[in-house]
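Session log. Operator J.P. requested a structure for one protein chain; no other inputs attached. Running the standard single-chain path with token output.
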Amino acid sequence: MTGIGFTGAPLDRNDAMRNDVVAIAAALRSPLARLLRMEGLEPALSEDWALIWDDVPADAQHADYIFLGLYDDAPCFAALPPRPANPTVSRPGWHLLSTLPDDQAAIWGAAKSVIDWHWRHGFCAVCGSPSTVFRGGWARRCNDCNAEHYPRVDPVVIMLAVDGERALVGRQPSFPAGRYSALAGFIEPGESLEEAVRREIYEEAGVRCGAVHYVASQPWPFPSSLMIACIAEAETTDIVLDENELEHAFWVEKADVQQAFDPNCADPVFILPPPQAIAHHLFLHWAFHR
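Structure written below.
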């Protein structure tokens, strides 16, 4: 499955280089070094909707920058600014995502997630003391107990329960009018991916499922999740809605999903999630390739 938003970054992350302070310092001084221009957690964009890269300041210190990786031979960095007193909550900007090329969105997504993680983890989770940056911006170490902390992602299952030629779709009140999507939820500690899929479908819609099939995944930097797309075989079909989670849910025919992909269809049964979301690709996979 190709074309999923926030995937396909053209960078060599070069994990070994992260541990080499001398190499990172030399990379910052390299005439090839490039600095991703950011405005807080959002990317600064050129007039043609592309990321903007600047020269790295001559006095750059490695603890103030995140080493994103190598693009060809050019070391690429993002600055790690101090946490603002009242950081704004970043949400998907669909217009921005629809114009930023996938590979560039992937670079920004990684930078955004790591900067956001640093802002949230300035203190040690073990003893509460301040922590400092190391490993090229990809870890923090406690100044007191020496505990090491690494960026984490939150695993989320997003899934279609299917019953033959039908799939279960739902909508939240915040969705634009007419839009429906796959159900989704966070994986809990001590739970497998398959168990989380079955639990979330049952909790949100009252439908019991059996076999679960993995389809694809997507990093989602709002703030830092990994969306794991699956298809689950329904064993029951009666819907019992959790109104705290969903506004409405129904079984949609595969033919109606196929019609929803037709740009010439004036009155689809529902509106699909945008192409940047993995739910869009999950519908595409089920409707045309399964």
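Operator note: The chain has seven helices and 15 strands.
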